[in-house]
Amino acid sequence: MQHTKAKPEPTVAHHRARKAGLIRCVNNGERQPDDPEFIDATRELAAAQIANYIRKITAAAPPLSDEQRHQISALLRVGSVG
Fold first, then answer.
1. How big is the CA angle at 58 (ends 65 and 7), to the nearest 5 degrees?
2. Can you state the angle between helices 10-27 and 36-60, rounded to 10 degrees?
3. Residue whose C-alpha is closest to residue 41's, from 20, 55, 10
4. What is the pLDDT of residue 82?
5. Selection from 7, 41, 6, 46 nearest residue 26 by Cα
6. For the chain, which residues make up each domain, given as ranges?
């Protein structure tokens, strides 16, 4: 069986292309790695990928209880730790 990679959602594709262009600028010295636009593009791509993943898994899952939704949303409010 052959697996084909699914096309990314349009917003994910947009943010991936934006970040790729900025990575080229960082790599050729036109921008610094701490450039605010580059950091923003990285953040926006991550948010689009997370949202896309959440849409996929919630579409396949049974409805969540209010408590489960609260616990999951708390993870997003806290952000990454470690």
1. 170
2. 150
3. 20
4. 45
5. 41
6. 10-78
